[in-house]
Design brief:
The protein is an alpha/beta fold. It has two domains: 23-55 and 308-404, Aspartate Aminotransferase, domain 1, CATH 3.90.1150.10; 68-306, Aspartate Aminotransferase, domain 2, CATH 3.40.640.10. 41% of the residues lie in helices and 17% in strands. The chain is built from 14 helices and 15 strands. The protein has helices at 4-20, 68-81, 96-108, 120-131, 146-154, 170-178, 204-214, 242-246, 272-281, 283-286, 293-306, 309-331, 351-363, 393-404; strands at 30-34, 43-46, 52-55, 113-117, 136-141, 162-165, 186-192, 222-227, 252-256, 266-270, 335-336, 343-347, 366-367, 369-371, 382-386. The protein has a seven-stranded mixed sheet, with helices on both faces. α8 (242-246) links the parallel β8 (222-227) and β9. The radius of gyration is 22 Å and the shape is globular. The chain starts with a helix and ends with a helix. The model has no long low-confidence stretch (mean pLDDT 95).
Length: 406
């Protein structure tokens, strides 16, 4: 057996992950979808378990994955052009649906241009490759997503040209800017719009104002980049994300179609020059097939829905159900991190109680995510709830009633 020695070594590594509490649980398989009925939202079935579940662990904030308009758009695109592009973008793998989605995305986030990727993860990697130079310094929030951390590594940014500031701490960001070494020509300050484990947002207006103070110090300026994957579609008055909520548009926006919009894919939106640099230099764009035409057509329709009366109703219900759940946690005396985002953490601060509560909710038909050490520091053990627009008032009442019994 050629991999016998490798298998043994990998098994040892996996056992170590399990011993440290970092191993992933076996993946559950969803094998059924039950549409909303009456005063109940959608339910899901899991293979091998004879009961339906409410999902409070889904990023699909607007609940659009099963939207008939999107399914119809995806079907039409597939019937017109097939199930896949058959080539990378540079070798005639660009179809009308790719170009149309990029134009619509740029308008949605108020940027001059956009480029789509297979995911926001690969968008972050590609952007870092495209905009980095030997004289670039990157500065990031200490709680940035793994994709941003990987992006800085894949762009081969020297350790001396990196800075990390304490989470949402503007005084510490100023320290990082002050410590940028002489000879740096370009500074990129990168942060999540919504921090997915906490549900709080970056103060983009404060970050932008601070960066503007330092812009003239560097020949190529201080550039702000937000990965607003959990904000776009779900946050702000019209779903434009954290930039809309804060009233300030950063220089570059990375986002996803795979969360609030319920499809697949990511994007970078910025100036025409930045996007052309991405097109020319981003390995994760150049050397891989693009999204299917069905994904693009469905994502395009999702943007239209978000801007429609239907979208306004979805956003309104999302806000109402989020507020209902947050108020319910407060009434029950549960600790959370304040904010209007539909990611609602419940701080348990005990590993055993976190596991016990997650198990209790599962046994009663509720899917949630428990976060314990070493994923979070000891004492910060948390259960993350994610409210979706298809959740009903009754759904939230049911979950709060269960939490009241814990």
């Amino acid at each position: 057996m050629p991999t016998e020695k490798l298998d043994k070594a990998l098994d040892t590594e996996i056992e170590q992950l399990q011993a440290e509490g970092r191993a992933k649980i076996p993946e559950r398989v969803i094998d059924g979808y039950i549409p909303p009925a009456g005063d109940s939202g959608p339910r899901y079935r899991i293979r091998g378990i004879d009961r339906p579940f409410i999902r409070l662990n889904s990023n699909s904030y607007l609940s659009l994955s099963n939207n008939p308009q999107m399914i119809e758009a995806a079907d039409r695109a597939t019937n017109d052009f097939g199930v896949g592009p058959g080539a990378v973008r540079f070798i005639d793998g660009t179809f009308i649906h790719h170009a149309d989605l990029e134009e619509r995305t740029a308008r949605f986030v108020n940027k001059r241009a956009a480029k789509i990727f297979n995911s926001a993860y690969t968008a972050n990697l590609g952007l870092a490759i495209a905009v980095s130079s030997k004289k670039t310094c990157w500065i990031g929030d200490s709680l940035n997503h793994n994709s941003i951390i990987r992006a800085m590594r894949i762009a081969n940014i020297p350790r001396a040209n990196k800075g990390i500031y304490r989470h949402n701490d503007m005084d510490d960001l100023r320290r990082c800017l002050d410590e940028v070494e002489d000879g740096i020509e370009r500074v990129i300050v990168v942060f999540d719009g919504i921090f997915s484990m906490r549900g709080d947002n970056a103060p983009i207006h404060e970050i932008q104002a601070l960066c503007n103070e330092y812009d003239s110090r560097f020949p190529e300026g201080v550039i702000t980049v937000v990965d607003d994957s959990h904000g776009i579609g779900a946050y702000g008055e019209t779903g434009r994300g954290t930039a809309e909520y804060c009233g300030t548009n950063p220089d570059i926006i990375v986002g996803t179609f795979g969360k609030a919009f319920g499809v697949n894919g990511g994007f970078v939106a910025a100036s025409e020059s930045v996007i052309e640099a991405v097109r020319q230099k981003a390995d994760t764009y150049i050397y891989t097939n693009p999204l299917s035409m069905a994904d693009c057509a469905a994502a395009r329709k999702a943007l239209d829905i978000c801007d429609s009366d239907e979208g306004k109703k979805l956003l309104s219900n999302l806000k109402e159900r989020t507020l209902q759940f947050r108020n319910g946690l407060e009434f029950l005396g549960k600790e959370s991190i304040p904010g209007p985002h539909p990611v609602v953490p419940m701080l348990v601060r005990d590993t055993g109680k976190t596991h016990e509560t997650v198990r209790y909710l599962f046994e009663n038909g509720v899917l949630v995510v428990g976060l314990t050490f070493p994923v979070v520091p000891k004492g910060d053990e948390t259960i993350r709830f994610q409210i979706n627009a298809a959740h009903t008032e009754k759904d939230i009442e049911e979950v709060l009633a269960l939490l009241g019994k814990v």
